[in-house]
Amino acid sequence: MPSSGAHHRCPLRPPPPAPRWPAGMNYSRFITSVSAARKASPIRLLSELMEKAPPSLISLAGGAPNPDLFPFKKATVAIGHGSAIEIGEELMKRALQYSASAGIPELLSWLKNFQRNLHNPPTASYSPEQGQMEVCITTGSQEGLGKVFEMLINPGDNILLDAPAYSGTLAALRPLGCNIINVPSDQHGIIPNALKEILSTWSPDDSRHLPKFLYTVPNGCNPTGNSLTTERKKEIYQLARKYDFLIIEDDPYYFIQFEKVICPPYSLAVLFLVQERPKI
Ligand SMILES: Cc1ncc(COP(=O)(O)O)c(C=O)c1O
C-alpha cells in the first residue's frame, strides 16, 4: 500500500466540472454473462450491516469468531522515513474479524481520500447511479488483475496488450481463451501509431469484435522499464474513445521509483475524463 510520505502529497486539484451526462458510463457490454449473473451473498451483506449496528446487537446469523481467541494481539510497523504505524489490540481484533467484502470501512474511506488527493477523478463526486468511483481491496496487483480479467473476458474476445508483457499477466490471461493482440512499445511506452494501425482493421461500430480492453503498465513497465508519456496517454485515450475499449492500468511501481515523484500524473482514464468528456 502506498505510504503517505511528504513527496507523495499533491495539492488537491480543483474539482472537475459536474458531468454533463445523466447516467454514468454503461459498462454492461463489457461484462461476461457469468459476472453479470453474480448477486451479493446474503451473509456478506449481513457483515456490512453488522458494521453499522450498535455493539449491543448480537447476531446469531453469521459465525463471527470470539476476537479474544485471535492469535495476533498487536503490531508495530516501522516506516522507511522513521515513523511507525501502531495497530493496537482493538484495531487488531477488527482487522482479524469478518467485515464487509470490499474492506474495512475506515480503510476504504482512507483509500478513497487518497485517490481524491492523488488523481481527483470526476467520478468521486458522482452519485452511485452515475457510477461513483469505487475501491476494492485485493491482496496485490495480481489478484486485482485476475478478478478484472475474469469479469471481462469471454473465450474468443480480442484484447490488446502492451508488449512485451509481464509474464504474470500472460499467465492469468492465457487460460481464459482470449485472442491476445500485442501492441508494440518503445522507451516511451505503447506506440500510438502502432495501436492505431491495429485498430484500423475494425470499424468503430463493430462492438462484437473490437478489442474489449487495452492492458498497460504505465510506469516502470515490467519487463521493459519504460513509462508512458502524457502525450501518448492522450493519443491512446482518443483511440479508446473512438473504438470504445477499456484501459486497464496495472501500476504497481508508481510509488517505488528511484527518482522522487513530485506530483503524480493523472492515470490514463482520469486525465481525459477531466479534460474532455466522453460522448455517450
Ligand atoms: C507489472 C506487474 N503487475 C503485477 C505484478 C504482481 O504484483 P503483486 O505482487 O502486487 O501481486 C507484478 C509483479 O512483478 C508486476 O511486475
TrEMBL record:
Aminotransferase class I/classII large domain residues: 91-259
Keywords for the protein's UniProt record, in alphabetical order: Aminotransferase, Pyridoxal phosphate, Transferase
Tell me the organism.
Strigops habroptila (Kakapo)
Q: Which InterPro entries match?
A: Aminotransferase_I/II_large, Class-I_PLP-dep_aminotransf, PyrdxlP-dep_Trfase, PyrdxlP-dep_Trfase_major
> Which Pfam families does the record associate with it?
Aminotran_1_2 (PF00155)
Q: Which PANTHER family match?
A: AMINOTRANSFERASE (PTHR42790), KYNURENINE_ALPHA-AMINOADIPATE AMINOTRANSFERASE, MITOCHONDRIAL (PTHR42790:SF19)
GO-annotated molecular function: 2-aminoadipate transaminase activity; glycine:2-oxoglutarate aminotransferase activity; kynurenine-glyoxylate transaminase activity; kynurenine-oxoglutarate transaminase activity; methionine-glyoxylate transaminase activity; protein homodimerization activity; pyridoxal phosphate binding
**Superkingdom as given in the UniProt entry:** Eukaryota
Protein name as catalogued: Aminoadipate aminotransferase
Q: Name one GO biological process term.
A: glutamate metabolic process
Please list the cofactors this protein needs.
Answer: pyridoxal 5'-phosphate
